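User: What would this chain look like folded?
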Amino acid sequence: MKRQFLAILMAGAALAAPVHADIEGVADEAAIPEDTGVKLAPGFRATVFADGIGAARHMAVSDSGWVYVALMKSQDGFGAVALHDSDGDGKADETVPFAKGMTGTGMGIDGGYLYYAQDERVVRWPLPDNGAPEGLAEVIVDGFPNKRQHSAKPFTFDGAGHLYVNIGAPSNACMEKMRTKGSPGMDPCPILEEYGGVWRFDANKPGQTQADGVRYATGIRNAMAIDWNPHAGALYIAQHGRDQLHSFFPEMYTEQQSAELPAEEFHRVDEGADIGWPYSYGDPDIEGRVVMPEYGGDGKKTSERGQEPLIAFPAHWAPNDLLFPRTDALPEAMRTGAFIAFHGSWNRAPKPQAGYRVVFVPMDETGAVASDWITFADGFAGAGPIMSPRNAKHRPTGLAEGADGAIYISSLMSGGRVWKVVYDGK
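Assistant: Here's the prediction, encoded as structure tokens.
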């Protein structure tokens, strides 16, 4: 086995003596239910909680059961929606738009406030007992750089008053000329001064700028999937790997290799960590990190720059949200693990696109991966091979947990949808 690479390119690859052998994933042969459009791991069932709500991104759920959803595109002038199921049938019957004039991705609840992240700032409102927040939002951090590419600002909290914000790198590999064949990588990469990492802020101090924060970790191309693991007391991310290995370096990488490299990396991120972008990447077939070709790599040469991931997921699956459950509603073997929503690829041509699923990673209370990951929810994209993400019916985008232990999954496609998934053991 290659050092710490615990899950390789074949989904469901077996490890010796898995700790949680009783955790089962979605059966490949299982049919996609017509009523929900999503197939689940045994013992779970889903309802379509809300449909046609707009381009849904990340979510948060209050203790009173209100589900707050960020919208990437304005819906009737509003950039978020609050949803509630008043009769307990698993479907929202109250819909209240809010965040007028805004659009964004990040959504979270901490210390009695509802936080919302646009591309340039993080704001908050007092969390209402019911319904959507009202009045002007308080600006917590403003002036984030926005270069359009990787401009979303997902965030998480550590429960100790800190806010962690991903600031994605507006770049593929920190080339002198962006996405230009033959252009070398810059070393040191100047982009890392303002981008390509996670910054930590005071969650309760209004009027901050990026300069007021602490660059908690660097070398992260874009960590749309970010969450604090309350069991291990540590930050975790799943990042988007780089693109275009074959188109820029056809002498080194075939189209097949370009479709399967580099891995989408799942990491524990301690303060001061350097994950390795843009100098290196993860290849499950090679021990150690591989030097990026823009920095003198040949597809085999290894680098000491960066840290090895806990898991090397298949390339270009696009991890878009990460959730560590906080309740005891799940089976005991799943309570300290991680759910990751993969938005699905766009750049595996001429091979079919891949991903478009939610996976579960068994982990112990220390935050170590306990056994191989499983596919928790699948079928979002629809039946048949997907040659373009535009052909996908749905793309998992956000994850959230309710106080009752229900898992919510969002999609921004086909008008926007939110599923509610519960465990009933059947």
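The CA atoms of residues 284 and 309 lie 10 Å apart. If you want, I can go into more detail on any region.
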